[in-house]
Amino acid sequence: MSFEKPIIAPNLTMVQKYIEDGKHGLLFPVGNVNMLTKAASLAILNGRLSPLAHEIALAGRLHAKNVMARDVIVGYAAILENVLQFPSESALPHSASDIPETVMREWQWQLFTDPFESKLESPHQNFSKKNVVFQVEELWKSRRHIAEFVPNISKGGDETISLHDWAEEKTNEMDEAIERREADELEERNDQPQGTWEDVYRNVKRVERTRGELHERDDGEMERTGQPLSIYEPYYGPGAWPFLHHAALYRGIGLATRGRRAEADDVDGPAQLPLLGDSYYRDVLCEYGAYFAIANKVDRIHKNSWIGFQSWRAGGRKVCLSTVSEKELIDAVSKGKHGNAVYFWARMDKDVRHGSSKRSALQQEDFWSFCDATNAGNCRVVFSDAFKRMYNLPASWKALPPMPVDGDSWSVLHSWAMPTSSFLELVMFARMFVDSLDAQHYEEHHDNGTCCLSLSKMEGQHCYCRVLELLVNVWAYHSARRMIYVNPVTGVMQEQHMLEHRRGHMWAKWFDFSLLKAMDEDLAEEVDYEHPANRWLWPSTGEIFWQGIYEREQNHHHRQKILKKRRSREKLERMRGRYRQKSLGKFVKPSPPKDADNGSVKTEDSEA
């Protein structure tokens, strides 16, 4: 086809991908000799190629070059994805596979090679005005020619900044910052009043005693305390700051040890959950690291009846809540219009990662197909294996919860809101699911660097993220939560997957709260008594608590109370039963003795 020859080929799937019948070539059904003969008769006329064959050959030659352009661009993009390394705090670029097919078809070979091919065909023609590349090239050549032959112009006159200049400038800025900090510290020391060590020690003790009393809350925290809903926005570093909100309804949570916003009341994720200090788990868990951090001793951070999350990527894709939709959501939450529901405002069918928003209603991609498409085609297998390991099910068990295709949509981009009690149930389920998922893929991913849920090394850095992004839908559907879609622009609400239509499809017993709580307590009891030495993710994802701890403490206090009462009773019995000496009566002072001779009373004066 590249040599401008007419193509006659069978209509195989691979052939139809590149050749359109009647336009780039002639196709015939496999094994059909009559259709092959008919196609050959159309291409050959009177022993020569027919005009139709010439037209098809010319169109095929141009189409072959366009296909080569698309393959070359996608190939170079794949090479860059495997070569370039990005830090975990930076926003990752999209993969080349995310480019829609319609855009790829518009790439034409002549857009890249026409100036060069025409230059070869007519070398004496001036092409400096035809393409900007040649204009820049000629300008560069002229500058080099002037610098070589004019002695007054030095080579150092070029204002191009090299890497060495950048490094030197950065070093100078760091030195100046250190000098300013040292000068400020020295000035602060000189301004402080001098005193004895006893005064310093006394002041320090006073500050430590009043530290809890001096805790002041900013205006944002005061406003959040008075409202029913608080939405948290997880982020990694400064690259996500432009997509975060500053209103009182929102609060950021930094997942990295550095890169939190200055003068903002953001939650320190690694301080709340030490597991986020490990860069490996911070990258593979993504937003679920923020879920576990907030749920760990939630009363210290979150004091609202409703809780929500919104990924900074939602801001980048312009699916954030508008002012109108925020008011509608708060009003629905305050009045309890939909009860114990899950509100979300980023739809799966509007997601641009696979062009599903361009599909018609009849061609709508179902939940598990979307999950497979975002996880290298292995979502069903990985989810089923993790589910069976979590519930200790046999290998032959069909452990893939049904997610029906009923024309409604699902939540993506971690953009939802639900009651705080429901959020804690979700975290209870997610902690066990993530532990099961990590137990199966840790060695393969952490030790060998391969992730079956990604197609590139860059995606493999965030191995579990795309599966966990859809986990809230599975939990909400099968735990009988109402799912309400909120239009992020207008605030109009529409219920998805009606509860009455779920009967016979839900796996309610596997998502029952009593079962999940019993499983959670069993794991906590195992940690408390056995203290396993092997690597185990579940104890590091949150606070370990089970009913046995509370019962054990209650029994201990009860025994102490009984022992105290028994000792008091024994003491009273001893006090009552001890011997008491009877009183001898009233003491009477004896009279002084009388003198036997004269019967007078003998006194000290008379003796003297």
Secondary structure layout:
Layout: E1 8-10, H1 13-18, E2 26-28, H2 33-43, E3 44-45, E4 48-49, H3 51-83, H4 101-105, H5 110-121, H6 132-149, H7 163-191, H8 197-209, H9 219-225, E5 229-235, E6 250-254, E7 267-268, H10 269-272, H11 279-285, H12 287-295, E8 306-309, H13 312-316, H14 323-335, E9 341-344, H15 367-374, H16 379-391, E10 416-419, H17 420-447, H18 457-460, H19 465-469, H20 471-478, E11 482-486, E12 493-496, H21 513-530, H22 547-577, H23 604-607
Parallel strand pairs: 1-2, 5-6, 5-8, 6-7, 9-11
Antiparallel strand pairs: 3-4, 8-10, 9-10, 11-12
Helix pairs in contact: 12-17, 16-17, 17-21
Structural commentary:
With 608 residues, this protein is of the alpha/beta class. Helix content is 48%, strand content 7%. Strands 7-6-5-8-10-9-11-12 form an eight-stranded mixed sheet. A hairpin with a 6-residue loop joins β11 (482-486) and β12. The longest helix is centred in the N-terminal third of the chain and has 33 residues, at 51-83.
